[in-house]
Write a structure and sequence with these properties.
Elements: E1 2-5, H1 10-21, E2 26-30, H2 36-41, E3 45-48, H3 54-61, E4 66-69, H4 80-98, E5 102-108, H5 121-130, E6 137-142, E7 144-145, H6 153-159, E8 161-164, E9 173-176, H7 178-189, E10 196-202, E11 206-207, H8 209-220, E12 225-228, H9 234-240, H10 245-259, E13 271-274, H11 279-288
Parallel strand pairs: 1-2, 1-4, 2-3, 4-5, 5-6, 6-10, 7-9, 8-12, 10-13
Antiparallel strand pairs: 9-11
Helix pairs in contact: 1-7, 3-4, 4-5, 8-11, 9-10
Length: 289
Amino acid sequence: MYAIIGITGHVGSVAAHLLLNKKLPVRAIIRSAAKAEARQAKGAEIAIAELHDALALEKAFSSTRAIFVMTPPLFDVADPMAEHDQMLAALFTAIEKTRPDKVVYLSSIGAHLRTGTGAIKKLYDMEQAFGRLPVPTAGIRAGWFMENFVGGIAQAKQSGQFHSFLSPLDKHIPMIATKDIGQLAAELLQQNWTGHRIVELEGPNRYSANDVVNTLTTQLKRDIKAQIIPVHDYQRVYRSFGGSPAAAIMMAEMTIGFNNNHIVFEGNGREQAIGITLLEDALSNYVRT
């Protein structure tokens, strides 16, 4: 049995789909019964568990060969770090008690860094915790999600302006499509190893804000201009997206970390993987809607 947390999202749904296509048993760990019916129809067994609830997670993880773990961004939570700490504690306890053959989890570029990473600090904490588990683990340090730009497509279509957190506009950073993360997660779940692995994952090319603008110009068939969001506006803009004050501070620090070259892949002999999805392909479906 392969247990998947986050099956209703872009990454978990891809991993589950690939496993189910191979006729492998999948258990979808979902926070509420409201989303269960659609997953059952696709062939997954359902377990209801909140990520804070160690007992419910222990039940959900029972008799599993492998578990895929990802935690939510907690963007609208008053204290994201405290909330995430509670989730980590519950996950650690449940995994330690059930002892699956392996755990694969979603981490992030920059998760080897202890400070200066904002929202990524949650994943540093996850790596540190899961590195103490008595079962084999593999953390996927994914680059900047290509889908992070989807929220700006409607405004670009309407106004011809694309507002960029990335600065300068020609700065290239590692990016990855979420479906490629799901693909790697499914592959790792089917592998066998010992100890604790970290896999750094990015797409076939590194992209800049200018590349995003050029892609949207082509796909929207209109001239799109980039406008850099000033650093002093980061928190205000993240708040306008629905972020809590604490989350906005963390997101702002993360963005600054990318822009000043603090948030990078660790390298130093870490495993590396390359996805196949190009930026234009990752954004094309969203441009058409």
